[in-house]
Amino acid sequence: MSELPTTAQPPAESEPCIKAGRPRASEAEARQLELMNTAARLFLEKGYSKVSLEMIAREAHVAVRTIYVKFGGKAGLFHAILTYKREDFMASLDDLDTTVRPLRDILLDFSQRFTDLITSSSALRLHRMVIAEAHFNPELAEAFFEGGPKQTREMLTRFFSRPDIRSQMRDDIPPSMLTIYLLNLVMGDHMKRYLFDVEIHHTPEQVQQHLKAAVDLFLRGTMR
Hints:
single chain
């Protein structure tokens, strides 16, 4: 991984005092969320490599040391933003470790939410930024994968590894491959079109029709 573009050790900088005493948990959480939103906006507006921790700290009205203490640096902050956005978007999805709904219903629900997440305007802008800068910023590519795609793949692989789900699937296809097949069917070719064709538009009905066809094809090829 290449060196971060900022100082490797937290600078000896005092924390700005807004109120006397230690902030309450709700206040601290609100400040951290505001910091992440500010950083996310700057990353999308200017690009990852052109945004420094000093710039983020100045816009968010915090000390640079705060970012180091909470996130470990710029890559850690970027990873935290991705994780938070992903978890917030998927919060209403059934817990895949425990849900007992019919398999097709679970996969359709996941596929719809996953599609909504990665085709949102901010997600597409973020994806384009990562593609453009990954070669020069290996830490950016790693943080993106760790905070987004990797977590989604691990969540699905755990689901396909559940004994009750595994018993419905073919023995010769491991859970990790089931995950890859599903994601490729749901968004493989479509993701390329979204990334490179800015004017692409699909109605909700067209998206839903595609997802039903993708899930049904997946099940026909992978179930016992």
